[in-house]
Design a protein that fits this description.
The complex is a heterodimer of chains A (about 130) and B (about 350).
Chain A: E1 6-8, H1 45-73, E2 77-82, E3 87-95, E4 101-109, E5 112-120, E6 124-129
Chain B: E1 2-4, E2 8-10, E3 17-22, E4 31-36, E5 42-45, E6 51-54, E7 62-67, E8 73-78, E9 82-87, E10 93-98, E11 103-108, E12 114-119, E13 124-128, E14 137-139, E15 148-152, E16 157-161, E17 165-170, E18 175-181, E19 186-192, E20 197-202, E21 205-210, E22 216-221, E23 226-231, E24 237-242, E25 247-251, E26 257-261, E27 268-273, E28 279-284, E29 289-293, H1 327-335
Antiparallel strand pairs in B: 2-29, 3-4, 4-5, 5-6, 7-8, 8-9, 9-10, 11-12, 12-13, 13-14, 15-16, 16-17, 17-18, 19-20, 20-21, 21-22, 23-24, 24-25, 25-26, 27-28, 28-29
The chains are: A alpha+beta (about 130), B mainly beta (about 350).
Keywords (chain A): Acetylation, Cytoplasm, mRNA processing, mRNA splicing, Nucleus
Protein name (chain A): Gem-associated protein 7
GO cellular component, one term (chain A): SMN complex
C-alpha cells in the first residue's frame, strides 16, 4: 500500500521563547509608543541602567564560559555525581540545546558499562573533569 | 506535492497550560496570552508565537487569562483567590481584585471599562476598572463553581458556565434570562459575536447554540472527550482538542472530520482560532502551546511555502521543517531528500 509522500511545511525558524533572565516586555519593543510617560522618580536612572548592563554583560560572559567548558569536555572522561551518592564516569559526547540532557558513551555504572547513554541534567548534582 | 502540517511549539511554561486567549487585531498585529498552572501567564506575538513577556505576581496557578481588544490590558484569574489586571505593554500589574475563592475566568467588555470574573465561590462579579476601589456588582445563582463567564450581545448580556449549566443573564437587571442544563460536565465555552453563536463542549460533544436564545443549532460528536473547541471566524471550520492529545478539524457545515493532528504529549485543555482565522493555538497538559495553520502550506507568520523549483538562497538558514514526529512519520522523513534540521522537542525548563 502506498502512503502519499508529504513534505512538512517549511518554517523560517521556531517561535522565540523566554530569555530566561527577565520578564520581557522590552522597553524598546515594537509597542513602545504605547507606553505612558513615566516620571523619573527613582534614583539616578543612568547609574541604574549601567548596573543593569553590567549584570547583563557578566551573565553573558559567564554563559559563554560555561558553553566553552562544555565544548572543552567533548571526548574527555567526566565523573558525574548523581543523587543518592551515586558516582559514575563516562566519556562526554554532547548536551542538547537546553542543556537538559548529557549524551555520554562508555558510562561506567554500578551494574555494568553502558555503551551509549543519556544522562538527565536534573539527575546530575555535579560533574568534574580534567581537560 | 502534498504539504504536511508543521505545528510551531511555544515552550516556556513549566506546568500545564489551561487557558489561552487572543486579542483583536491591532496596528501591531494580534497577541496571545496563556494561563498556566505555574502561575506565570505569558504574552506572545499571536502570528509567530514569539514570547513578549511574562506577567509576574500571582502566587498560585493561573486558571484564566484574557486580553482586551487592542491588547493594551490583560486580565488573569488565579488560585491565589485574586484576579489581576495588567498593562500588557509594560507587563506591570495594574490592579489586584480580591475574591473569596479560586478565580477561574475573566473577561473584558469591548470598551475595556468593565471586567467580569467568576470562580469557585459561585458568584459572577463585575468590576468597574475606572473605579477599582469600588465594590464589584455581584450576580448569584450558580450552584457550582463557575468555569467560564463571557460578555455577549455587545456587553448587554452575560453568559456563564458552571459544571452542569450554562446561564444567560441580563447585565442591566443582573437577573437570569435563560439557562441550559447538561447531564455531563461542561468543559468549555466560546462566544462568537458575529452571528451570536455559542460553542459549548461537554463529554465528546461539540455543541453550537444561539447566544441570544440558547436554542441549539447543531452538535458534533468527537472520537474522544473534548476539553475545548473553537469556531473559525468565517464559520467554515471548527477545531477541537481533548483527552486523546489530538486536535480535530471539522467542516462546520457538514460536520465532516477533515483532519486530525497528533503532536501534543498530553491532553489538550484549550484551543482557539486567531482573530484572522489563519491559525489556531492549542494549550496542553504537556506545558506547551502549539500554533497550527488553518490552510496547510500557506505562507503566513513563520510558515513559508517554498515550491520545489524555488531557489532557497533567500533563506539564509537551512529550512527547519520537522514537527515532533510519530513512528509512521519517521519512515517518511528518512526517505525524503532534504536538508532540514530536526528540532528536538524542547525540554520545558523553569
Amino acid at each position: 500500500m502506498q502512503t502519499p509522500v508529504t513534505i512538512p511545511v517549511p518554517v523560517l525558524r521556531l517561535p522565540r521563547g523566554p530569555d530566561g533572565f527577565s520578564r520581557g516586555f522590552a522597553p524598546d519593543g515594537r509597542r513602545a509608543p504605547l507606553r505612558p510617560e513615566v516620571p523619573e522618580i527613582q534614583k539616578c536612572p543612568i547609574a541604574q541602567e549601567s548596573l543593569e548592563f553590567q549584570e547583563q554583560r557578566a551573565r553573558a560572559a559567564l554563559r559563554e564560559r560555561y558553553l566553552r567548558s562544555l565544548l572543552a569536555m567533548v571526548g574527555h572522561q567526566v565523573s558525574f555525581t548523581l543523587h543518592e551518592g551515586v558516582r559514575v564516569a563516562a566519556h562526554f559526547g554532547a548536551t542538547d540545546l537546553d542543556v537538559a540532557n548529557f549524551y555520554v558513551s562508555q558510562l561506567q555504572t554500578p551494574i555494568g558499562v553502558q555503551a551509549e547513554a543519556l544522562l538527565r541534567c536534573s539527575d546530575i548534582i555535579s560533574y568534574t573533569f580534567k581537560p | 506535492m502534498a504539504m504536511r502540517q508543521t505545528p510551531l511549539t511555544c515552550s516556556g511554561h513549566t506546568r500545564p497550560v489551561v487557558d489561552l486567549a487572543f486579542s483583536g487585531i491591532t496596528p501591531y498585529g494580534y497577541f496571545l496570552i496563556s494561563a498556566c498552572k505555574d502561575g506565570k501567564p505569558m504574552l506572545r506575538q499571536g502570528d509567530t508565537g514569539d514570547w513578549i513577556g511574562t506577567f509576574l505576581g500571582h502566587k498560585g496557578a493561573v486558571w484564566g487569562a484574557t486580553l482586551n481588544k487592542d491588547a493594551t490590558k490583560a486580565a488573569t484569574a488565579a488560585a491565589d483567590f485574586t484576579a489581576k489586571v495588567w498593562d500588557a505593554v509594560s507587563g506591570d500589574e495594574l490592579m489586584t481584585l480580591a475574591h473569596k475563592h479560586i478565580v477561574k475566568t475573566v473577561d473584558f467588555t469591548q470598551d475595556s471599562n468593565y471586567l467580569l470574573t467568576g470562580g469557585q465561590d459561585q458568584l459572577l462579579r463585575i468590576y468597574d476598572l475606572n473605579k477599582p476601589e469600588a465594590e464589584p456588582k455581584e450576580i448569584s445563582g450558580h450552584t457550582s463553581g463557575i468555569k467560564k463567564a463571557l460578555w455577549c450581545s455587545e456587553d448587554k448580556q452575560i453568559l456563564s458556565a458552571d459544571d452542569k449549566t450554562v446561564r444567560l443573564w441580563d447585565h442591566a437587571t443582573m437577573t437570569e434570562v435563560k439557562s441550559l442544563n447538561f447531564n455531563m460536565s461542561v468543559s468549555s465555552m466560546e462566544y462568537i459575536p458575529e452571528g451570536e453563536i455559542l460553542v459549548i463542549t461537554y463529554g465528546r460533544s461539540i455543541a453550537f447554540h444561539s447566544a441570544v436564545s440558547l436554542d441549539p443549532i447543531k452538535s458534533f460528536e468527537a472520537p474522544a472527550t473534548i476539553n475545548s473547541a473553537s469556531l473559525h471566524p468565517e464559520k467554515e471550520f471548527l477545531v477541537a482538542g481533548g483527552e486523546d492529545f489530538k486536535l480535530y478539524k471539522y467542516d462546520y457545515n457538514s460536520g465532516e472530520e477533515l483532519e486530525s493532528y497528533k503532536g501534543h504529549f498530553g491532553p489538550i485543555h484549550c484551543v482557539r482560532f486567531s482573530p484572522d482565522g489563519e491559525l489556531y493555538a492549542s494549550g496542553s497538559e504537556d506545558g506547551t502551546l502549539r500554533l497550527w495553520q488553518t490552510v496547510v502550506g500557506k505562507t503566513y507568520g513563520l510558515w513559508k511555502c517554498v515550491l520545489p523549483e524555488e531557489d532557497s538562497g533567500e533563506l539564509a538558514k537551512p529550512k527547519i521543517g520537522f514537527p515532533e514526529t510519530t513512528e509512521e512519520e519517521i519512515e517518511e522523513i528518512a526517505s525524503e531528500n532534504s536538508d532540514c534540521i530536526y528540532p528536538s522537542a524542547p525540554d520545558v525548563k523553569a
